[in-house]
Here is the input.
Amino acid sequence: MPLPESAPSAEEEALVRSFVVAAKQARWIDFLAHPKRRGKATATLAHCRDLDRRWVVGLPRDRQDVDAIERALRSRGAGDTCHVISESPEIDGRRLPLPEALGVVVGFGLGTLLSCVPGKLAYFEGEGPSDRCILARPSA
Here is the structure.
């Protein structure tokens, strides 16, 4: 199902407003909302510098495999599926089972954001292992 041309999905907007630095949010939302410009946003994911560092939770080197990342996300409230924003067009804009999405992106250098709990919990995979992290906002 294609994304609407006037607005990103509510889940994508929540992810951007929660985890992208304020100065870049409007640009991200605008790019994600328009299929012809969406690639400009997803192309930056491999080396993304727009994440708000306040919400980044690092992953220990020995816990960066698919199973360990899934356990870490589930311990923070992730459900069975996630919404994907990715430089990989095969999965971008889709809702996938969490293990499947992690299996596709972890270790493959595909810049990707997985929204696990809208506006509260996400996973980021950049180009290299040092670019893997959980994005988590405290519950109100």
Residues 22-33 form the longest helix (12 residues). The two ends are 33 Å apart (CA to CA).
